[in-house]
Design brief:
The structure is a homodimer of 214-residue chains. Chain A is α+β, with helices and mostly antiparallel strands and 214 residues long. Chain A is built from 9 helices and 4 strands; from the N terminus they run βαβαββααααααα. In chain A, β3 and β4 form a beta hairpin. The radius of gyration of chain A is 17 Å and the shape is globular. Chains A and B meet through β4, α3, α4, α5 and α6 of A and β4, α3, α4, α5 and α6 of B. Chains A, B: This is Maleylacetoacetate isomerase.
Chain lengths: 214, 214
C-alpha cells in the first residue's frame, strides 16, 4: 500500500494518523505540493483525479480525499474502528470532523492563501488576519461541540476517532501559523493527549521523510 | 422532524434532496443566513453549535453538518440508501462528495465572499473571478472523477447517491453565479437528469417557503 502525500499537508497528516492507529504499514511517496507535483498530468490521470494530496494506492485501487480514505480504511482494516457504528455517536464524530474538514481547513489551505497573495495582492498582515479569522470562527464551533457532546479522554470517548484525526492536524497547523489556542481548553486537552500518543507522534510532519522539502 | 435551513444554501439543498429521495416528511424552519440568524445565541447553543445551516432536529436529537445529517438519515431511513454499503463503491461516492463539500463549496460560500468584500475590499470583478476560479478548478476534478469512475444514469449507478445530492446544488449555485458549465458534459448530464426528478425538483431553492427572503 502506498500513500502519496506531503509532510506538511493537514489532510495527509489525518490519513497518516489513521494508518498508524490501525498499524497498517505503507510506502511513503512524497508529492511536493509547493512545486505543484499534485498537478502533474501523470499523477492526476493515473492516481488522483482530484489533483490533490493525499492519495492511497492499494494494488489496482486508488483513492483520493482524506475522509474517503479513512472511511475505506475503516472497512479494510476494522480495528480499531475510527468511525463508530452506533448511529448517534457516529453522527457526533462526523459532525465535528466535517466542521474541520469543510468549514475550517479549506479556506486556509495553501492554494487559497497563494491566491490571496498572487491574485489579490493582500499584505502579509491581511493574509495572517484571514487565517486567524477562520481559525477563530471554526475553533469556537469545535469547542462548543466538545462542550456539549464531548466525552472521555479524546473528542468522543476513551479512544481516538476520525474527529481526533481531523482536530490534531488542524490545531498543529494553527499553532505553526502563530495562532493562540489557549481559549479552546477542551480542544487543547485532546491536542496534548495526542502529543504523547505513539500513532499521532509517528504521523507528525517533522518525522516524515520529506520534512526537509524547501 | 425539523430541518432548520435556508432556501439558497447549497448545504441545506443537499439535505432537502436526501429527505425527498427517502420520502421523509419534515417541518421546514427557515433560518435567514443573510441577516445572521444562524449566529443567534439560542440557535447556536440549543440547536447547532456549528453556527450554520442546516440543522436536523429529531425529538431530543439535533445534528449539524449536511454530510453528517445525510449519513445519519441513511441509518435512520435506509431506503433508498444514498451511501452504498459496498466498500469500493462507497469510496467513489464519498470521494466525489468530499471534492465538492471540502474543495469547492467552502471557498465560495456566503461568509467567504462577504469577507472578501468587507475586509479585503475586492471589486465585483475580483469577487466574480475568485468564484469562477474555484468552480473551474473543482469542476474539472469532478469531471475527471466521473470520466474515470462514473457509471450509469447518475454519478455512480442508476440511482442517486450522496454524490448527486452534492453535485446538483453545487452546479445550481454556479449557474446562478453566471458560470459556464458547458465544458463539463458528464456533470451536466447528471444535472439535467436531476431537473426532471421529483425529489431534486422538490428540494430546489425556488420552491422553498422562504424563497422570497430579501
Amino acid at each position: 500500500m502506498q500513500l502519496h502525500n506531503f509532510f506538511n499537508s493537514s489532510t495527509s497528516y489525518r490519513v497518516r494518523i489513521a494508518l498508524a492507529l490501525k498499524g497498517v504499514p505503507f510506502d511513503y511517496v512524497p508529492v511536493n505540493i509547493r512545486t505543484g507535483e499534485h498537478r502533474d498530468a501523470k499523477y492526476v490521470n493515473q492516481l488522483n483525479p482530484s489533483a490533490a494530496v493525499p492519495a492511497l494506492i492499494d494494488g489496482d485501487f486508488s483513492l483520493g480525499q482524506s475522509l474517503a480514505i479513512i472511511d475505506w480504511l475503516d472497512a479494510r482494516f476494522p480495528e480499531p474502528r475510527l468511525i463508530p457504528a452506533d448511529r448517534d455517536l457516529r453522527a457526533r464524530v462526523l459532525e465535528l470532523s466535517y466542521l474541520i474538514a469543510c468549514d475550517i481547513h479549506p479556506v486556509n489551505n495553501l492554494r487559497v492563501l497563494r491566491y490571496l497573495e498572487t491574485e489579490l495582492n493582500v499584505t502579509a498582515e491581511q493574509k495572517s488576519a484571514w487565517y486567524r479569522h477562520w481559525i477563530a470562527e471554526g475553533m469556537a464551533g469545535v469547542e462548543r461541540l466538545l462542550g456539549k457532546y464531548g466525552t472521555g479522554l479524546w473528542c468522543f470517548g476513551d479512544a481516538p476517532t476520525l474527529a481526533d484525526c481531523c482536530l490534531v492536524p488542524q490545531m498543529a497547523n494553527a499553532l505553526r501559523m502563530g495562532c493562540d489556542l489557549d481559549t479552546y481548553p477542551l480542544s487543547l486537552a485532546v491536542y496534548r493527549r495526542a502529543s504523547t500518543h505513539h500513532a499521532f507522534a509517528a504521523a507528525a510532519p517533522a518525522l516524515q521523510p520529506d520534512c526537509a522539502t524547501p
